[in-house]
Sequence to fold (276 residues):
Amino acid sequence: MSIWFAALQGLVQGLTEFLPVSSSGHLVLVQALFGSDVETNYMLFNVLLHFGTLLSVIVAFWKDIKELFIEFFGWVRDGFKINGHPYRRFIVMLLITLIPMFAILPIESKLEAAFSSPLLVGLMLLLTAALLYLSEKAPKKHKTEQNASWLDALIVGIGQMFAVIPGLSRSGTTICTGLFRGFSREFAVRFAFIMSLPVVLGANILEIADVIQDPSLMGEASIACYVVGIVVSMVSGLAAIRMVKFITNRGNFRPFVVYCTLVGTIAVVASLIAMV
Fold:
């Protein structure tokens, strides 16, 4: 693997992990274009790219994460009583979003493999565009961790579950689902990104376990490639988070609607032509 390809993968991962355009879908398309299956042949590199974006979320939402960490111990000390603490409600909401992911975990890898074709990725990008467009029409409400219901959290978690399909954006799906449930725009973004932390961390741990069991999955990437991939994915991830915050507060996802529609259409048309 060359340094430039490592940087390209880091850029794609960092931007598309948080922009509502699907990171897994774009990785499928980039790898199909350049003929290199990074997720299979360089699993350790793929893990480190996700680690870079994980750092982006921690940096961008450090204040919330610190409060959640501190409040967790207070919650345990008080016998798991919420006692009107917003961040304790936030913790419970995060735990509820994990329920659908546990349900799909046994078949996640098979599901991703079944949908990892450029044609299906293109179709899912078109679906992402439709979700983003419809979310602009959602009534503006003001639910936050103080008054959102457990059902709201579960439904957003179900949205995240479906987003394991390549081409269906995790951030786009969870943000839009939150908006449909009446979350404020600021909380929809904050909740969507923070709820991704345990899922991405858990997925990385499982992938690291696979690498330990089969060292051949590490690939032959150099240390420089690993460093470049992590740094580029973290920096581009931070930029993407800031952009999503800005766009969501404006309530206009139109640039991403156009982009997903364009890329999805090209992927579908190219795939159909290749089949002929």
Remarks:
- The mean pLDDT is 84.
